[in-house]
Amino acid sequence: MNILLVGSGGREHALAWKIAQSPLLTRLVIAPGNPGMEKLGELHPVKADDVEGLVALAREIGADLVVVGPELALAAGLADRLAEVGIPCFGPSAKAARLETSKAFAKAFLERHDIPTAGYGVYETAREAREALSAFKPPYVIKADGLAAGKGVAISPDVKDAEAEIERMLGGRFGQAGARVVIEEFMEGEEGSLFALSDGRRAVLLGGAQDHKRAFDGDVGPNTGGMGAYSPAPVFTPDLVKRADAEIVQPTIRAMASEGSPYRGVLYAGLMATESGPKVVEFNARFGDPECQVLMMRLADDIVPVLLACARGDVSTVAAPSFKPQTVICVVMAAKGYPDSPLEGSIIRGAEQDFGPHVQVFHAGTKRRSDGQLAAAGGRVLNVCALGDDIAQARERAYAAIRQIDWPAGFCRSDIGWRALDREG
Ligand code: AMP
Ligand code: GLY
Fold this sequence. Notes:
Blueprint: E1 2-7, H1 10-19, E2 27-32, E3 42-43, H2 51-60, E4 65-68, H3 71-75, H4 78-84, E5 89-90, H5 98-101, H6 103-112, E6 120-123, H7 126-132, E7 140-144, E8 153-156, H8 159-173, E9 181-184, E10 190-199, E11 203-211, E12 214-216, E13 220-223, E14 228-231, H9 238-258, E15 264-274, E16 277-284, H10 291-298, H11 304-312, E17 327-335, E18 347-348, E19 359-363, E20 366-368, E21 374-376, E22 380-388, H12 391-403, E23 410-411, H13 418-424
Parallel strand pairs: 1-2, 1-4, 2-3, 4-5
Antiparallel strand pairs: 6-9, 7-8, 7-9, 10-11, 10-15, 11-14, 12-13, 14-17, 15-16, 17-22, 17-23, 18-21, 19-22, 20-21
Helix pairs in contact: 1-10
């Protein structure tokens, strides 16, 4: 099989690493990819939002399957265009991807279908939104409607702060994404991410993970795309997973089909385990990053058959993927200054050595200099992932690998997995 993988982050490096192990694979082409993927496939410099360029590349290489990493490509209609030219695509249509790309759409959808989530309102003017605050209790959850690179959510402790956030979001800070704001009821509980692979009619669960969104130890500091993750996550008890599947995942897939936008691809359900059961915090139309990295390392089976079955529309033809019983942890190494102003271009040494059978270092934001050295090219730069018999061993292995990487201009959190470790301890 010829496979085109779209994207260039740590998520896509992990997907490439897993896909490259498939006996079904003939040729793996990655657009645009990153230096970590050089040995796994052929890199083509077509950007992830260049829909026509990607369709042309898929045709040129005779792709049997296109696997889409980032949401931007989906929002730009890549899956729709590939459907027109008859190439199976793992990733939803732009219409189905609205579960991620429009929070207002997702909330209305959940309400229409009685799928558990926080109560909410959608407002187009600051005056409407300010007036609506009295119907909510603090802390106030304020969200920009559209894609805002993970930065469009504020949790405000009081009315004054909430009003300032409303002004900021509607005041052009997020462009079109901030044309409307959503205000939500605050949900108490522990959060986790559950992943399911869908063919448009039904879904198979891929398991859960937990990530750390804040930049610094102790879950403080600014929100980021994710500073680390681990799987399995103890918050996902068998009972919670069963309820989330029956009350959230399957109803969502069925309802999307019944509304004429069947959802094909990975459904990432950000869930809150509340006292009354699992509730949706948000949906994403793609794998989580860095959650994907830990899932790929835990996956025992070949991933290609299930991706292809979803893309072709019949997941019932393959067995649900099985996982290693061990724990995988991922520690993100970011460039100093991340998330606000990450330092660019610093040299990284020792990241490409062989760390042994339990450790993988995925590249998230690196570039290869003309002298062959690796340099930072982004906020989140490396994903150091390790497998262990329990969270403590996985964590020890990940931090031991990090100590061997010589990158003074980088930093990482030293407490990834603390919640799970607390429970185990
Ligand atoms: P989102 O981008 O919608 O996932 O929101 C970012 C983060 O804000 C989530 O991961 C939660 O930690 C938090 N959050 C969002 N909505 C709520 C809510 N209704 N109640 C509590 N926390 C929330
Ligand atoms: N790690 C969170 C995300 O991928 O959105």
